[in-house]
Design goal:
3-stranded antiparallel beta sheet, mainly alpha
């Protein structure tokens, strides 16, 4: 269980530190060009959800974030509480690794954006990529917490496709 916090906490702190830096260093009207015509650092506020959808619903997203945090914690704590003695300690990473990793990243991401919503009333986005394709010109700005949430979804999908081998039955 403790390794979950060794994953969640650093990503949460990275999100907080980068957003603090953005607020102190980047003027909302002056993007910082990192790679011309491809990658900029910006300071954008987002009162909605992904891609700026559902704007000005901060209270709703605070409630959804709290439910998501509670759900992830219940899943993490519940699995580790029941049946942990039955598992060999050397195989902690083989059973439900992708699921636990996705939940740890989800915790970091949801908590990062929830902190913004509680402190500022909006989420701070600062990573802006222009992929020069019609649907991503530019891609909407995002942050470390958003990245954690997206990666968590991918890992959860990977976990859902993994088949656990059934325990061998005595003959």
């Amino acid at each position: 269980m403790k390794y979950i916090f060794f994953i969640s906490l650093p990503f949460y702190l990275l999100d907080r530190i980068t957003k603090y830096w953005v607020l102190r260093s980047i003027d909302p009207g002056q993007p910082v060009v990192v790679v011309p015509d491809f990658f900029h650092l910006v300071s954008i506020t987002n009162t909605g959800a992904a891609f700026g959808s559902f704007k000005n619903n901060n209270a709703f997203f605070i409630a959804i974030s709290c439910v998501a945090l509670l759900f992830a914690l219940v899943l993490l704590l519940g699995r580790h509480k029941h049946g942990a003695a039955d598992r060999p300690k050397s195989l902690w990473w083989t059973r439900n690794f992708w699921r636990d990793l996705s939940l740890a990243l989800l915790l970091a991401g949801v908590l990062g954006n929830l902190t913004d919503r509680l402190l500022y009333g909006h989420v701070i986005d600062f990573l802006l990529f222009d992929l020069h394709v019609p649907f991503a010109h530019p891609w909407p700005a995002f942050n470390v917490a958003d990245s954690c949430i997206c990666i968590a979804v991918v890992f959860f999908i990977v976990h859902s496709f993994r088949q656990e081998k059934p325990a061998s039955q005595p003959v």
